[in-house]
């Protein structure tokens, strides 16, 4: 018995069957007929099921990530709101503190102005009457004591003592007057009420004219004062009195803190055409840790001792110098070696 469909599938010829063979035609099942198609459909469905599974996993992971991200966002929003509230409160505190400091600064300036103005009038009177007393004393009393036929005796020593005391009063009165003037200058500059009489000026001429006055800092001292004007100096637009005030303050500092050696004032032009003025001395110098603060208002260098005497400035001279120089767009710096001296340098842009 032979299956006709099988013989066709394998390419057998039914005519070659032996005699008596029975040829049957078994019906083909649907599974067998469409096996390839069913396999393809099964593969496609399997792929779709896997894809759906992966998609569900991805969706679940995305939802989990979105939930976690939302939680983090809420936490960040709460943190930002809390931090913002803290910063807002801190800002209000700083504004209140700044307002208080501004009031205190205005009060300080008002007190300084009032005290300085109130001190200036009696100081002028004290100095004026001191000079009158000294003049009358030298004119009428000293000749009587120093006369050859004078019988004053010990009055000569008393006269010398009185004259020295008057000189001390005059010296200290002038020093206090300078302090009062520095107070007024500093307060006016800081408040913006200072008057600036700017003109185009020649620094070389100003320094030459001021040299005799600057040499007065070194009268009766062993310090040599030198002036060096290197070549033509660039003209600057500035208030001549303010420019000389800076130079005078720097030279005066050099004279104050130098007991022997040299104080040198030099001026030259920089490579960029600016004016460069330097004041160097061979004095006590400034410690490195304090050098950066010497231009601060009321700052005084500690332990500045010369010949056993502690030297103190007012803490205003260099501060005034810095404000004047910076007002004209310049720079001022300091270099120093303790025990060997200091160099103060300021530069100003040229008029051109």
Automatic annotation (TrEMBL):
What is this protein's name?
Answer: histidine kinase
Transmembrane region(s): 38-59
Q: Name one GO molecular function term.
A: phosphorelay sensor kinase activity
Name all Histidine kinase domain ranges.
114-352
Residue ranges of coiled coil: 62-107
Give the highest taxon in the source lineage: Bacteria
Q: Which reaction does it catalyse?
A: ATP + protein L-histidine = ADP + protein N-phospho-L-histidine
